[in-house]
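Final report, Chapter 2: Outcomes

The project's central promise was a pipeline that accepts a single protein chain and returns its three-dimensional structure in a standardized token representation, suitable for archiving and comparison. That pipeline is now operational. To close this chapter, we reproduce one record exactly as it appears in the project archive, with the input sequence first and the structure output second.
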Amino acid sequence: MPPPTAWPLARVLAHRCGGALAPENTLAGLDAAAACGCRGVEFDVMLSGDGSPVLIHDETLERTTSGRGRVADAGDEVLRGLDAGAWFAPRFAGEQIPFLDACAARCRALNLSVNLEIKPSTGYEAETGRVAAGHARRLWAGALPPLLSSFSEEALAAAAEAAPELPRALLVERVPHDWRERCARVGAVALHAEATSLDRGVVEAVRATGLWMASYTVNAIEYAEMLFEWGVDCVITDRPDRVRAPSSPLAGRS
């Protein structure tokens, strides 16, 4: 895939669907992001025990649902019966774990651009990449495709085989010394890094290669403004109601 020229998604993405405004990785989060004027979202996709792509971050169910045990051991019907909202606030009681098809339909209805993070359970890296990419190709057909990101190079490689036309991003905490080689290995068009690990020199070096640069998780308005001034293309935030993209267009690339 050739180097990109213009970041295609919203420049501010709501973290895990709605950030701090709604239970993470839920349809309620998508609604909350759209309601506050955010035009893009990031969320996590993992496989159920039946191999279906669902939105959840942890490999286990306890933190964000009424269930117990590993997501990879829970069948679709079990997941559909869990409460994924009451832990966040009583008014979200009854919110379900969304399956990717329902999430895609809501994103398209709300005109939200998407960073889909492939979040495999341990041992399911390649399968999760393949399934997530295949579903994304079908579910966003005829629309702006999601950017597929992952910490797992194995998952990204499988995604590339399943849907080579979908853009991919390598997720890292700190930008490693071999970031160029690692991005090239998986055909990534973007590098996503933890915001506090960045400085202007790193951002400029990444952008000079033609790669997009995104950062997470940016909740302070002033910090987001600084990152944009450095040349970061996108910030992922828990506060999509506060953090805003700059009004000026993206600076030209080297």
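Archive annotation: The chain has one domain: 12-59+99-237.
This record, like all others produced under the grant, will remain available to the consortium after the project formally closes.
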